[in-house]
Amino acid sequence: MRVLSWIPLFLGLSITAACDLVSGDSGRTEDIVVAVDDTLRDARIFYSEGVSVSEPAHLLIALHGSGDSGRSFQAGAGLDGKAPDNLIIAYPTAAKGNWAEGCNCNIADRLQINDLGFMEALIDHVSEDYQITPERTYAVGFSQGGLFAYRLGCDLSERFSHVAAVSAPMSEPLSRMCRASDPVSVMTIHGRRDGVLPYAGTDNGALSLLSADETRAFWAEKRSCGPAAETSVRSGDATVIRYDHGACEAGVQVSLLQMTNGVHAWYTSSPDNRTFLFDFFGL
């Protein structure tokens, strides 16, 4: 079983201007920088082989966990190899090893790092050359990147149609400030045995987390969804319990995938998170 666990890889990153790189998957990769509030921010972008400037494309922003980087998350997440022909995947890097998730509980929040502006600048950069719309723009985050993905659903819902979090429930402080002015679909993938960001949540002041079930209920209420249908599915040797809400406002989806024996990890087999994610995004 191949997993990406929550272990910082600390690869040295140099800021380079749009430089094509050799990729092991079908497509090409480049490193870019964008200016946000007079600060240079870097990201790695993968273009699947069939992406064309003359055809509509889809953009997925993939957010690494605490202490990691976009470069190493690309190497470990295995998304490129599963990417359909019309998908662009952006792997941004957090400025201080953490994303400004909206909890006012970490260094990025305390320094008021403009990660929301970074996401908008990244979308705008890709949209300069490719036909990207909010309806075809998605985000997925692992661990602390997942906490930030929920913030994108709250504060940039006009720029994203779907956000997903792996091994991360929603922060309780963010839930009290979440506006989500536009309809956005939300999926949580979480292991019952997660010992880092617990499935059951935590009660610890600014570090408090909703449980995975409370996270699902929060977004279902936000979008006036009907009751959740519970189903059990197999992915490889793993059992996954799905909770999928129907009849949501504007046709959005709200789902929780409970990995019954899952720990704090990004799984690429038994179960394979990527299959669930790409199905959720409609790719």
Radius of gyration: 17 Å
Question: For the report, how would you describe the main beta sheet?
Answer: 11 strands, mixed
Q: What separation lies between the terminal Cα atoms? A: 24 Å
- CATH architectural type: 3-Layer(aba) Sandwich
Helix-strand makeup class: alpha/beta
* Unreliable segments of 5+ consecutive residues: 5-22
Q: How much strand content do the residues show?
A: 25-35%
Q: How do the helices and strands follow one another from N- to C-terminus? A: EEEEEHEHHEHEHEHEEEEH
What's the shape? globular
Give the proportion of residues in helices: 10-25%
What topology emerges from the helices and strands here?
Elements: E1 3-5, E2 19-21, E3 27-36, E4 39-48, E5 58-63, H1 70-77, E6 87-92, H2 107-110, H3 115-127, E7 137-142, H4 144-155, E8 162-166, H5 172-177, E9 185-191, H6 212-222, E10 228-235, E11 238-245, E12 254-259, E13 265-267, H7 273-281
Parallel strand pairs: 5-6, 5-7, 7-8, 8-9, 9-12
Antiparallel strand pairs: 1-13, 2-3, 3-4, 4-6, 10-11, 11-12
